[in-house]
Amino acid sequence: DLGSVAGYLRSGDHIVIREIVLDRPAATLRVLADGRANWDIARARSSAPGGPARAVGVTLRRLRITDGRVTLNDAQSHLTASVLGLQEQLRGDFGQRKFTLSTRTRADTVSVRFAGISYLNRVALALNADVAADLDRHRFTFDHDSLRLNQLVLAFGGSVTAGTPNVDLDLAFSTPSTAFADLLSLVPAVYSRDFARLQTAGTMSTSLRVRGPYGPNAFPMFALRAHVANGAFKDPALPLAARDISLDLAVDNPGGHIDRTVVSLDRFHALLGGRALDARLVVRTPVSDPDVDLRLVGAVDLADIARTVKLDGVSELRGLVSADLAMRARRSDVDARRYDRVDGRGRLDVGRLALRSTSVPHPIAVDTAALRFTPRAAELVAFSARAGRSDARATGTLDNLLGWLLHDDVLRGTATVSSTFVDLDEWRSGEKTTAVIPVPPRVDFQLAASAARVALAPLTATSVRGGLHVKDQRVTINELHLETLRGSLVANGYYETVVPARPTFDVDLRIAGVDIPSAFAALTTVRALAPVARWAQGGVSGAAHLRGALGTDMSPVFSAFTGTGTFETERLVMQNAPVLEKLADALKLDQLRRPSLGIVKAAFDIADGRVHLKPFVVAMNGLNMTVAGSNGIDQTLQYDLGLAVPRALLGGSAGKVVTELAAKAGQVGLGTADVVQVAALVTGTVMNPAVRPSFAGAAASVRDAVQQAGAAQVAAVRQRVDSATSSARRRVAEQAERIIREAELQATTIREEGRSLAARIKSEGTLRADSLAAKATSPAARFAMQAVVDRARREADQQSDRIVREADARADDVVAQARRQAAALAPPSP
Question: Which residue among 42, 456, 680, 719 is the one 20 to 30 A from 12 at the CA level?
Fold first, then answer.
């Protein structure tokens, strides 16, 4: 209000702010473990020169927030919260020292997690409050105000007094209604747009009391109670009711520190159909050393769930799940592997489970699953299931399950899995690209697998068997045998995602009798590395060592592809190959158009995006050909061919062509030699090659001709291969340096975070020890308490040291794995 500004300048009247509007604000609030907040950015206030300034009176008529989003992560209080769809209307005369602050707050969803326990999960919120504000005393008083969470209405009153450094709280919440339906609305699976139709019965009561200072080194007492008796609910559109629901929950903290919180679920009981489910839970010291005591007993017919609660997208759900589980464990005992102090035993059984849902692409059926739990391991005694057309049977164990769940420890396990048919095509994404498949960290898992048939179009493999080892973000393949492409294949190697955006692989392959046309049609790698296979009929055997990187679509990055190998073929027929057609046209030798090849034995290297063939000799339709050179991933050709042609084949047009080539080479006539040598340089592309023949001389025999041609080509090819390999080595070295550099930066971050966490743990341990010492008022009490104090400090120091050691180990492992990955990218030595 500009008029009010003029009034302030003239006579000191209040400045009137008619409205402040925040449209779609987003706030991310963070508090570090040492209490520093990211919103504390104002400079310290200092006295202005010339004496105190005149106070400015401000009247705020309205503050509006529309569609706001707020997230809070308070590491000091171990509190995380999020508020989405925030709508706020705030009114008050801030020009007065005492006034009424009116707030009307709405939020689409609110989630709160405190000390590792979720208290609210995507709950709609409405707050109506008229607060008596006393700015002189920094006190805000509530009286008969209300807070609604979904259908649960809480009446509250009390006061909040702001101070430095603590805020003094005195608040009490209670539920005016005793209807069980109100508390039931906090269950996400039940609360929906049809919640008003539910038929409910039973009573409930909830209360919350908070009193005391809250600040960097202070924590208030609080007591939360929730009680349900004879609860029941039924959807009129469904045949079954959930009944006999009872609950007794207490969350207490006497004040002083958040770690003194105790969560006690003394009783939970419910009947679904004719089967009961009972649970009990106690959690102590939830921050420093969670001490969990859990018991779960009961059985659920999954069909009863579908007959009780609407399950969107689920067309079939049935099966029986029964459990009898008990666990009593402290995190420190699990961390130290003191399993003699851990009591964790029980069973979980599943039978005749069937699921059809829009969330999974194919029906799932579990005929049987039986797990047995001990403090050290979870044993999969039996498992038989089907997913779509695929089936599986398995047995195995998971070691250190508690350490993996409660701490950043490694989950170890072994399993044996067998199947009659695995159809991977059913589970392929419909998207054009496939995201990188990450290998999880903190897993050390060995798997022995076998399958009668595995389908992944256009490949089908049979008699599949082998071993897999998942460790350090790497899947190691051990003697994986399979029959495919009318032959057989054995693979050894690994797939690794240490750098998630750049997966790498290193694999040794042995193949026997693979059908070349089938391999060309099915495998992108064959089409890229051996394009001549398009025109070949026959089988191939051999061995190869391949390594490189994969792109985001999980296809090989051929520019970073390296490898070596050998292959051998028998009874090979070439049909309509452009290179041979062009060579036949140039030399007028029809024997080259659709030749039958003798045994071909050759070796190759892959470097710098090219496949380099070492010189080899092949017999075809009465003549011998020496082949050496390379073809690129870009389908370009660079080959030297040497033909040893018997004189008997040089009749007619062929003889005339060779004579002309000899004349160009400065030789008159062909002499009386039995064999004429003709060379050819092949360039261009696979589909459009260029052939340049030349006269190489005459020899007394085929053997002499082949040896002479081979020696000449070895020298020429070796020079080109050495040049290409040097270029590849330079590029790979640059990539390897980048990988190691990124890993070292990541390792530095891990070390810094580890030391920060260790410092916080040590500081909290010191505070706990000081708190314990302060409670001892007499010399005798101090003497008795000293051992406890010393132990608290010692345990904090040990935990802090362990965190630093583990951070250093993880950092060293990241760098070591990056160095292994960089070494794997190096091209083979010449």
Answer: 42
What's the pLDDT at 48? 54
- Could you give the count of Cα atoms lying within 13 Å of 161 in the half-sphere of its Cβ? 9
**Helix/strand/coil for 362:** coil
CB–CB of 444/412 below 8 Å? yes
Residues ≥6 apart with Cβ < 8 Å to 28: 38, 71
> Residues 311, 303: contact at Cβ < 8 Å?
no
Helix (H/G/I), strand (E/B), else coil: 640:
strand
Residues facing residue 685 across a β-bridge: 636
Q: Which residues of the chain have pLDDT under 70?
A: 45-55, 193, 402-403, 405-408, 427-436, 553, 651, 665-673, 697-735, 738, 742, 746, 749, 753, 763-764, 766-790, 821, 824-830
Tell me what pLDDT residue 705 has.
46
| pLDDT, tens digit (0-9, with 9 covering 90-100), for 746-802 | 677 677 767 777 777 776 676 666 666 665 555 545 555 566 666 777 777 777 787
Distance between CA 644 and CA 810 in Å, rounded?
Answer: 62
| Strand (E) or helix (H) holding 296 | strand 291-301
User: For residues 544 and 546, what is the distance between their CA atoms, to the nearest angstrom?
Assistant: 6
3-state DSSP assignment of residue 423:
strand
d(CA 156, CA 149) in angstroms, rounded, equals 13
Phi/psi at 237 (5° precision): -85, -5
Q: What is the pTM of this model?
A: 0.64
Is the distance from CB of 363 to CB of 356 less than 8 angstroms? yes
| β-pairing verdict for 411-419 and 443-456 | parallel
Residue with tokens 């060293």: 812
In this structure, are residues 827 and 564 in contact, taking their beta carbons and an 8 Å threshold? no
625 near 574, Cβ under 8 Å?
Answer: no
Q: What is the pLDDT of residue 407?
A: 61
